[in-house]
Design goal:
By secondary structure, the chain is of the alpha/beta class. Helices cover about 40% and strands about 15% of the residues. It contains eleven helices and ten strands. The chain has helices spanning about 40-45, 55-70, 85-100, 110-130, 145-150, 155-170, 185-200, 225-230, 240-255, 280-290, 295-305, and strands at about 25, 30, 50, 75-80, 105-110, 135-140, 170-180, 205-210, 260, 275. Helix 4 runs parallel beside helix 6 (about 155-170). The protein is globular. Iron/sulfur cluster binds near residues 33, 34, 41 and 80. Its cofactor is [4Fe-4S] cluster.
């Protein structure tokens, strides 16, 4: 067993809500891309630079976790894009987890562009070593929205990588961001997103709403980069109620499939959850009933969900 390090355990800054029970392993720090206009979350939380941790450091953390939770079964690798650390590092981390714990699940955030660079063969090798699920920021299926937001990926790239992941047997969890097309492009944003989901049928679709957080100079926190485009008039934020119309359109365009859709973030105005195979009609009904509420009730509910915070 490794010696206990003379430093505190290092953990990822952010994890998906669905990984709340997982043991968190920090492989990289921050986001190596860090250019998405709608994000900026790592700098906001004080992690503005990106770095890859040495295997020896990660291994020390794994030993600490082993002492604390020897029966842990589920693991999440962070920060934003741990696979950018390369297949050798990730492979060694995964091997060590399986060697030390009764592992059932190893999941990770992953950028589509990073997976594309790794290539089909490496993805298959990581699956064989035990990577079971990746959390991908799809954000939108609309090429123009992705370009404007500087996501650094196209629908074609998502299609290609998703095919490799499916062939390797790695589960895919897609994140979709309501409001990302602004008032200018919300219909195209939702229609193209539904088309891509219908085609690729990821295991999960997780819905969030665009969050435009302000800077906090006292705490030294930067604001959401997209506020610059809001201020210069090139992006008009969607209203809270507008995002419910977006969700309604998305659900209308989605087709029955094995995908599980969930609004598993508190910032959604309306939260629906269910399988696209069996619950699509019920989810559509729930969203329609919200939109049929008297205006005052809708307004009161939306007032709790401003898009600029
Ligand atoms: S959305 Fe993801 S890839 Fe884009 S800047 Fe944020 S953490 Fe990085």
């Amino acid at each position: 067993m490794s010696r206990k390090p003379n430093r505190p355990l290092e953990q990822p800054v952010i994890r998906p809500p669905s990984e709340w029970q997982s043991t968190l392993i920090r492989v990289t720090r921050g986001c190596n891309w860090n250019r998405c206009r709608f994000c900026g979350i790592y700098p906001h939380l004080g992690q503005s630079s990106f770095s890859i941790r040495r295997f020896e450091e990660i291994a020390e953390d794994i030993e600490i976790m082993r002492a604390r939770r020897p029966q842990a079964e589920d693991f999440f690798l962070g920060d934003a894009d741990p696979l950018h650390g390369g297949s050798e590092l990730i492979g060694r981390v995964i091997d060590m987890l399986y060697d030390r714990f009764p592992v059932k699940k190893v999941t990770s955030y992953a950028r589509v562009s990073t997976l594309r660079k790794l290539g089909r063969q490496t993805i298959a090798e990581l699956a064989a070593r035990g990577l079971t699920r990746v959390h991908l920021g799809l954000e939108s299926g609309d090429e123009e929205v992705l370009r404007f937001q500087r996501k650094g990926q196209s629908p074609a790239m998502v299609r290609e990588v998703s095919g490799w992941l499916a062939a390797a047997g790695i589960e895919q969890s897609f994140y979709v961001l309501l409001g990302l097309g602004g008032t200018e492009r919300w219909r195209e944003h939702m229609i193209a997103t539904a088309e891509l989901i219908n085609e690729l049928q990821p295991a999960f679709v997780r819905i969030r709403r665009l969050w435009l957080y302000e800077s906090d100079p006292v705490a030294g926190r930067s604001g959401c980069p997209l506020l610059q485009q809001v201020d210069d008039g090139s992006f008009t934020p969607q209203s809270a109620e507008g995002t419910v119309h977006e969700l309604a359109l998305l659900l209308e365009r989605l087709r029955p499939s094995p995908t599980y859709l969930t609004c598993d973030h508190a910032n959604n105005v309306v939260q629906v959850h269910g399988s696209l195979a069996s619950d699509l009609d019920e989810m559509r009904r729930e969203v329609r009933s919200f939109l049929a509420l008297p205006e005052e009730q809708r307004r009161a509910c939306c007032a709790e969900h401003r898009s600029r915070i």
